[in-house]
Design brief:
single chain; alpha/beta; 8 helices; globular
Length: 218
């Protein structure tokens, strides 16, 4: 496995992201984390990726539309994710952080590294360099990866009875590679990413997440 030639990245304080394959429980945990932080008096901006602004949401529609399955080129997908990210940084994230708010992101740049670098097998150095260009200093100071077995994640999603989007309908082998990508992020960037077992009670996961975030805020 290739190693990044330059692993130094700039991050912003008070910026946190939750990552993990679909079915890992990110949305539930984001709800709990936001509520807990606001009860402690913090002002939070919550975003999802791709999306979060008018332009970024339009790009999201393109990326997730199932009718483009098998048609969208992998590099086009990569660039669209970064375009949506560049917009939300300029329009939402930068102003929020500059005003002292906490930013909570449901996915951010490391999802591109995992999904396109490992899932799509694109060049990881290219993805890393593109993320640095897109984000500059606006990368989360801490990314929390919710890790779960792929089969268990598929079982959770099946219970939701919703039509899978273009990404969600990928093969199990794709998500196995994505999961490995997230594990690689935690291994290669331990100062910026931590792993939490998503196959445990919601309350235990929440307490772990909240502890990690409060440790960075203190």
């Amino acid at each position: 496995m290739e190693k990044m030639q330059n692993k130094k990245i700039q991050t912003r304080k008070r910026f946190f992201s939750l990552e993990g394959i679909d079915g890992s429980g990110k949305t539930t945990q984001m709800d709990l984390l936001q509520k807990a932080l606001e009860e402690k008096g913090f002002s939070c901006l919550r975003i999802r990726e791709p999306g979060g602004s008018m332009i970024s949401e339009r790009i999201r529609e393109l990326l997730l539309d199932s009718k483009f399955k098998g048609l969208m080129a992998d590099k086009a997908e990569l660039l669209l994710y970064n375009a949506a990210r560049a917009q939300i940084i300029e329009e939402c994230i930068k102003p929020a952080l500059d005003s002292g708010k906490i930013v909570l992101a449901d996915r951010f740049a490391w999802s591109t590294y995992a999904y396109q670098g490992f899932g799509r097998n694109l060049n990881k150095q290219m993805i890393f360099d593109l993320s640095v260009i897109t984000c500059g200093e606006f990368l989360p100071e801490l990314t929390i990866v919710l890790d779960i077995d792929v089969l268990k994640s598929r079982e959770r999603m099946a219970k939701e009875n919703k039509v899978p989007d273009r990404l969600e309908s990928e093969a199990l082998s794709f998500f196995e590679r994505v999961r490995q990508g997230y594990l690689n992020v935690v291994e290669e960037f331990p100062q910026h990413a931590v792993l939490v077992n998503a196959d445990q009670s919601q309350e235990k996961i929440h307490l772990e997440l909240l502890t990690h975030v409060l440790n960075r805020l203190n």
